[in-house]
Specification:
Length: 223
């Protein structure tokens, strides 16, 4: 059994396929059929193959097509095919290891260099951009301190006292809304706080309902 990282191996093979103008779909499906058998046999150095099994996995119906594509893969260095003319002995195939440290596909070097992007054991498999997105959301959720709030209010020409009220109110509530949900964007919440505050003050200074109508009442009329 050889030491093979199949992800690095397949990436190297596919890259070679992309750069090889001779490769057709049949070559790829046949190679993957051999690779599947190689993988299931724990990357044995030499495989004894069954033509009918490989043709079924590669979706080939013609023996001629199978042998033509197999000959190409052998001649082009994608695998090594050893044909058996003995009726009781199957043919053999060796799968060179791609993506080795030397950059060759001879298969003599079983060690593959791990890419820098491959995580260490126990490392979270989370892309870096998701970490940055989470950090940005945390920054928007609540301000760093009261000074950040006052600076934001000053930039928007809002009263400083409103900024202090806003910070004190939500800081006491641990930056949660009335329904218990967390504040997602404190700047947007500050805008709503200021606008609603003005509306409340305007409502407070508006005469109560019925006051103006009483002012126009004719007191000469009997009750």
């Amino acid at each position: 059994m050889e030491k093979v990282n199949y992800i690095i191996h397949l990436n190297a093979v596919f890259e070679r396929f992309n750069n090889d103008e001779r490769i057709k779909q049949g070559h790829i499906t046949l190679y993957l059929a051999f690779f599947q058998k190689w993988n299931r046999e724990f990357f044995k150095k030499t495989l004894t193959i069954n033509r009918q099994f490989i043709m079924e996995k590669a979706k080939f119906k013609s023996k001629t097509t199978y042998h033509n594509y197999l000959k190409d893969l052998n001649d082009w260095g994608y695998l090594n095919y050893f044909r058996s003319f003995h009726p009781a002995r199957g043919s053999k195939v060796r799968m060179p290891i791609f993506g080795t440290t030397s950059g060759t596909s001879s298969g003599t070097q079983a060690y593959q260099k791990m890419a820098n992007s491959v995580p260490e054991p126990g490392q979270n498999l989370v892309p870096s951009y998701k970490h940055k997105t989470k950090e940005n959301l945390n920054k928007q959720a609540k301000p760093k301190n009261e000074l950040a709030v006052l600076i934001f209010f000053k930039e928007n020409n809002w009263p400083e006292m409103e900024g202090r009220k806003f910070y004190a109110y939500y800081h006491a509530r641990k930056w949660k809304l009335q329904r218990g949900l967390n504040v997602r964007n404190w700047k947007l919440q500050a805008k709503n706080f200021v606008e609603n505050g003005y509306e409340i003050r305007q409502e407070a200074t508006t005469p109560i309902s019925g006051y103006l109508s009483n002012m126009r009442k004719n007191y000469n009329e009997p009750l």
